[in-house]
Design a protein that fits this description.
Helix content: 25-40%
Order of helices and strands: HEEHEHEHHHHHEEHEEEHEEEEEEEEH
Radius of gyration: 26 Å
CATH topology of the largest domain: Beta-lactamase
Number of helices: 11
CATH class of the largest domain: Alpha Beta
Strand order of the largest sheet: 14-16-17-12-11-15
Distance between the termini: 64 Å
Amino acid sequence: MKKFIIFFLVFFILPNNIVFANNTQNNVKIEAQGAILIDYKTGRILYGKNENEPLAMASTTKIMTAILAIENGNLEDIVKVSKNSTKAPPVKMYLKENEEIKLKDLLYALMLQSSNDAAVAIAEHIESDVDTFCNMMTEKAKEIGTKDTVFRTPNGLDSLDHHSTAYDMAIIARYALNNEQFKDIITTKQVSFKTNMSSYDIINKNKLLSEFEGANGVKTGYTGKAGHCFVGSATQNDMTLISVVLASGWGEKGKQQKWTDSKTLLNYGFDNFYYKNILSQNDCLDTINVIKGEKNTMPLYYENDIILPISKNEEDKISIKLDYIKSLEAPIKANQKVGVANVYIDDELIAQTNILTKETINKKTFSSYIYDIFTNWINILN
């Protein structure tokens, strides 16, 4: 049942037919080694730079740690901290062995201040050990459509082939942002809580939340291997965009550059793209002939609306190609697939939806044939 829900989210609510925008993205100057900007609603890539290059992703890893904890745990669960959790290097909460803390509070520490010990405690709570949890993270990434992601730690510390890509991190963030509990946690500015051993004041390190209009996520990251990384999200005028920058630099310059890169990407998206209704589900696109049916024709319609983010220079480059059968023998069921509608910008396939039958038409019976003959005879006499 769980895998069915994941399939539904990925292929229906969160379609992964991610395709590049044909635009002026070459004018965007990004220092990050790997970067991407996607539209949350459709998944369309609006900008990419080495977006499929495997790179260390530091604490942006914790996006996957958090969403797995939310999906597989109870936020009110009490987590008992192990000795192993306390050994995690800074940044950390400095959890104590046998400390008892709510899973939700660990998630605040994980996502707001990037606590490495919180990540280990979460992993051990959800699974039997950290390695098993990391395997779970990798498998989850594959299930939701990533192409080249391997998790070896739940906190993003450099280890073996722990890596992802800008594209994959956008996929993971897009999936996580569909969860309301996840969104509530990452947009919290500050939170305080107590355990049986300590009191904590957790402050969100995501500067984008206070420095960019409509910012609502997601996660910072830094290691010596990964450099400064950030997965961002913002909403303006009903458009939500997700940005990813990996290896924006090192040292103080890189620390600031990740914010500059992220804002540049988000501004580029909001300044250059708007939603256009390409196809409407309610449109009757055509009719087809019905053979041996109680009706002679069948109206057709699109299975889904297609609404895409496009730039102004793409307005005249959109084309729709319909491929469907021209006749069908009864009986015919409503919502029966008879073809597909493909939307192109230039010669690049951007989106598609099925073409379906509008109603049910039964096969013509012998009595119906007699009735038609009688009706025609009456009309002739008149």
